[in-house]
Amino acid sequence: MTRHLDAPEVDSVRPLAPQEFEQIRQLAYRTFGLDLKSGKEELVSARLRKLVRGGGFHSFQDYYRSILHDRSGESLLAMIDALATNHTSFLREPDHFQFLRDQVIPELGTRDPIELWSAACSTGEEVWTLAMVLNESLPHRRVRIAASDISNKALSFAQRAVYPVERCHGVSAAWLSRYFAADGRPPMSYRIAPALRAQVSFTRLNLIESYSWPHAFPIIFCRNVMIYFDRPTQERVIAGLSRHLEPGGYLFVGHAESLTRVSHSLEFVRPAVYRKAGKKEARWNK
Ligand SMILES: C[S@@+](CC[C@H](N)C(=O)[O-])C[C@H]1O[C@@H](n2cnc3c(N)ncnc32)[C@H](O)[C@@H]1O
């Protein structure tokens, strides 16, 4: 039978039941730390419905079971992609970049290369902002940025490095001409220039699992991800980040992510900026 064009599409997926929400909540918490509090039922239903329908399932329960049975892990990754919030922008929380420029970069001494980690980089705007700030301040230094996220979808977007013009509004005309290549006339999108792209390597990394980098970093940005975690998970994540900071190194978190009620070993520098105690290596300016 063909559906009349004006007739509403009948959704064959049964509404999300409380015990289904609970199963998905626990799975998201276990696998990537997401703390879905009660009240988030509608959000979960809206974000997963397409996957449930697309997989041909009639209930969230069947969909949930299929994730557990999928040994490839692909369905779980797709669920994580759908549930994670990827919102970000160029120069987000601009005082962080001002502080980086005015305070942190001068402390870096003559080190070369300069290595940074953007943990939970989402679609890349934070990474490219960091690259542009460093290239502006230290044009002759080698910059290496490790960029990571749990979401493959966000990472491939970041790696492609093409941004529709409306996502570049915060970027100055000078930076657009120096660090981007315009596509279309007038520009419809901008692509990050090859010289900057060559300074960044992307890795899939789950902050709640154990991981290790071959070296520690003088600067780590991990912003606007811990806001989705509960306190024990935040403590675990901060402990992992602290292990990968050099003594004297700086951790930037989101302004909405005060660590006041989280136990950690870092020193408070200013809102949303922390530092690892200890003697700095010789390559820092004292
Ligand atoms: C709101 S975005 C933040 C992007 C950027 N840092 C900023 O502040 O604009 C949060 C990112 O955290 C990622 N994320 C969520 N859980 C994660 C986990 N357990 N490990 C690593 N990344 C995670 C999401 O995929 C998402 O891209």
In helices, the fraction of residues equals: 25-40%
> Based on CA inertia axes, which overall geometry fits?
globular
Give a quick account of the main beta sheet: strands, pairing sense, barrel closure: 7 strands, mixed
Number of strands: 10
The radius of gyration over CA amounts to: 21 Å
Give every kind of bound small molecule, once each.
Answer: S-adenosylmethionine
Going by CATH, the architecture of the largest domain would be 3-Layer(aba) Sandwich
Strand order of the largest sheet: 6-2-1-7-8-10-9
Structure class: alpha/beta
Report the sheet-strand fraction: 15-25%
So what's the CATH class of the largest domain? Alpha Beta
Q: Alpha-carbon distance between the termini?
A: 77 Å
Explain this structure to me?
There is one protein chain. Helices cover 38% and strands 17% of the residues. The chain has 286 residues and is α/β, with parallel strands linked by helices. It has a seven-stranded mixed beta sheet with strand order 6-2-1-7-8-10-9, sandwiched between helices. A three-stranded antiparallel beta sheet has the order 3-5-4. The radius of gyration is 21 Å and the shape is globular. The model has no long low-confidence stretch (mean pLDDT 94).
